[in-house]
Write a structure and sequence with these properties.
This protein is of the alpha/beta class. It is 49% helix and 8% strand. The chain has 4 domains: 99 residues, no CATH class; 179 residues, P-loop containing nucleotide triphosphate hydrolases (Rossmann fold, 3-Layer(aba) Sandwich); 59 residues; 65 residues, Arc Repressor Mutant, subunit A (Orthogonal Bundle), CATH 1.10.10. The structure holds adenosine-5'-triphosphate and magnesium ion.
Length: 456
Amino acid sequence: MNLKEMLHFADRIVLDRTGKHLDDLQEAVLRGTVQRKTYKEIAKNFDCSESSVRKVGSELWQILSEELDEDIKKSNFRSTMERLQFSIVSNIAQKESVQINSINFCGEARQPPDTTNQNPQNQTTSNPQKTPTFHHDLSEMPKLGSFYNRTAELELLKKEILTEKAQLLTITGMIGMGKTALGIKLVEEIKHQFEYVIWRSLETCPTVAQLQNNLTEIFTEGDNQTSRLPLMKYLQNHRCLIILDDINYLFRRGELAGHYQPKSEDYRSLFKQIKERSHQSCFILIGWEYPREIAQIKHPNTPNPRLHGGRLNLARLDTASAHQIIAEQGLEPEANGSRFIDHYQGNPLWLKTVANFMVELGLTVTEVLQNQPLLFPQDLKDILQQPLAYLSEPEKQLLSLLAKENEAIALVKLLEIAPMPSADLLDILQSLCRRSWVEKTDRLYRMSPVLRQYLG
Ligand SMILES: Nc1ncnc2c1ncn2[C@@H]1O[C@H](COP(=O)(O)OP(=O)(O)OP(=O)(O)O)[C@@H](O)[C@H]1O
Ligand SMILES: [Mg+2]
């Protein structure tokens, strides 16, 4: 990667983060850093104070470190750029060595020659590595407001994607738990490690053909090609991160979890190919439930207890973060806030909804906690109505039984009281756990207080 390409690369990252291109001083700092100049020399050349140069430098290293998820400083900027570049390019080179010169690197247009290079003619033949173009289509990715914690989940996902090179991951969880928000945060943190990053919501339930068409259109444009290749070819040629949000819309209502609608059946073979074929890309599926075949994903490495076979089931948000969320809605902090948060299962959307309702009516946490049952505003019922519509009749039957139980219940007891045959009961229970309506801890099954209240 030559100087110009490093500057271009850094400019894209700073633009993404701040909405502004590198200014003259920032560029001078990066240029000087690559040319191994001291801050003092850079300041002298730019005719400004050394302290301003240091300040700009440290801001730049911070932005680059956060965006690239690497500790970047003046001493390792150049080597990190070269390494990142190398990792992307060598992946491509291994796969498609004959195409190395036809891949659309570095920006929409070809890069002007590097004026700092001593031997520019040599450059194209001896050094075919150029900065890859980033094609990030995040037009369907929602905007992220404030975001708290989820550090452990982010670390797990990053490890799985960047180190373990997972090809297919799912993030599931109850409505409002923060799956999309987590996905956005993840994309923000790792997008620069990928040539193509595409976010699509499947809310309109596109067919596989429509989705593939849409994706390959982006790849064809990005590669400046006129004819389209099959999707798998692009996933092999490029390091791509593709997020499919709201995958629940692919599934049938009124059936157990993970059964495709007739028009979505072809997704089964798409996901199977993504999981099993050899390529260098990663798909993340986000939704209330995951396809049944995903349950069989095996990972060669020791399974992480919270990321079973590439599936992350997003649990409640921690109490301190949940406090911040309700405070943002305008609810005064109170000592008994944790009980309130626990009742609403640390679910960010449920908490926001109830907090909004309380603020509108001028209710305090203490007042709400004094009255049983706890608040259950219509807005929250409307939210829960959406995943409820997907449940099968036997699942609803079992839930209304569970809703009557104050304590978590063992399987033996459930088998005694449930009206369905035991083989069916196990399937139903598995489906409810996959859909996050029932939680299983230490061989005991329970529903959250809000869901019990809703269905009781
Ligand atoms: N960690 C977090 N910090 C702050 N706010 C959060 C966090 N997670 C989620 N939220 C907020 O909670 C709300 C619900 O989050 P989000 O839309 O990500 O949930 P979801 O699980 O994707 O829901 P759905 O199942 O409807 O798709 C949003 O307003 C979001 O900004
Ligand atoms: Mg969502």
